[in-house]
Amino acid sequence: MVEIPKKPIPPESIIEITERPISPETIVNRAKTQESGCVVTYVGLIRDHSRGKQVISVEYSDSDGKAANRLREIADDTKQKWRLGNIAICHRIGKLSVGDINLVIAVPAAHRQEGFLACQYAIDQFKQKIPTHKKETYQDGSTWIEGK
Description:
Layout: E1 14-18, H1 24-31, E2 38-45, E3 49-50, E4 53-60, H2 67-82, E5 88-92, E6 94-97, E7 101-109, H3 112-129, E8 133-138, E9 141-146
Parallel strand pairs: 1-5
Antiparallel strand pairs: 2-7, 3-4, 4-6, 4-8, 5-7, 8-9
């Protein structure tokens, strides 16, 4: 009897919606594998200005409870398109201050070119598919902003 070697099962993508601060280093360490030649990472921050106003804080919500499923779809699509083993997407919700990290996308890849392209694609998909429901607090008041 000939034994057929089993292919290793690719690791599951890391998908998180959290109200706690995000550590990019922790996400990278969880995402990388022995096959990784690099981990291309995007770290999104809360800016100090928006719509011509000075921002004090931003509050994100997962209003329909579907953000995690949408993040998994983005991860699966990105993995398939670039034939990646896994990807990590961590989005912070709740009240964030200027400079806080609101998004980390980590793409472990064998080579940097596919890693950069896949990370850019995942960022673009996030912007298109995750509805923005956030409350921006400015020095002169607050407003809820509804996105796509």
